[in-house]
């Protein structure tokens, strides 16, 4: 087992190398998107792979920007890297990220993105908003005043779009939460109120929300619902008493969902290919990753245990041949290149939500998540005959 000193599992690098591996994989994913956007050459260069018969070229670039930054933001906001090389990379990618935001939101840029046509821009403006909430100093406060104006204008353009009655309500809400953080006096509390209270109506128990009136067996509680509820309620804390009263239950449910996610990770680092949007790969584990980042893990999951489980998932998700093109772009697939599992709304930009698994890089290298001795995760303990904790449903 991983937790036994002196055991060579052959499945993971030495403890001191875990963080370096995470950083290298995140930079590998981020490099082509941010480098080309900073140079204002993304639309000219980025390949757009979509489902057969679909043209997603009008939305895919904002997808890539918003989803990538959503995952990389905590690392950019951190200052507790393992060494000077990581700090150099962090500063480099923070600068590239700011330049990318400037390029995507400037109406005069060749890479100006679609914030107003069709419904999809609500989704990926929301992920960009979530990124800003996760790293406000690096991704907002350090932007030039003119760039900030462009970002605000872009965000407000999405108000002309009506979200669907499902997890999409949270997209409109988190955009308004970001506008509140940006100091915009006309931020709309009603969009936030509606999303929060509607999701309370859609709570089905044991930490899970329905995606609209019905519950779906998929990963949208992790792709969107739990992480956005947690980030929205934190961003608007103190605005209204009834919102503040919801925070405890939102956090407790997210903690339970993280516990469920950790138990879904097999001894080999795989997880069930359930539901839609499987092309987001290891981004399916965002809820567990966020709970680790926020020090909100359940008692049954230690920080080191979460690190080992997530590292195994990252390796299984990103190391399979065909995951990247020769030029370093992600391909449609759950494990390697599997274009047939891409729904009609999936394209190259969509795939960058896999970056959400890297949220714990926002923790300092000295944090127990990174410094704790290797520890088996629940399924690995259970299937090796070792002792493991009983699972208990969340009451209420």
Automatic annotation (TrEMBL):
InterPro entries: DUF2264_N, UCP014753
PANTHER family the UniProt entry points to: DUF2264 DOMAIN-CONTAINING PROTEIN, LINALOOL DEHYDRATASE_ISOMERASE DOMAIN-CONTAINING PROTEIN
Protein name per UniProt: DUF2264 domain-containing protein
Signal sequence interval, chain numbering: none
Organism: Paenibacillus algorifonticola
Domain DUF2264 as annotated: residue spans: 18-377
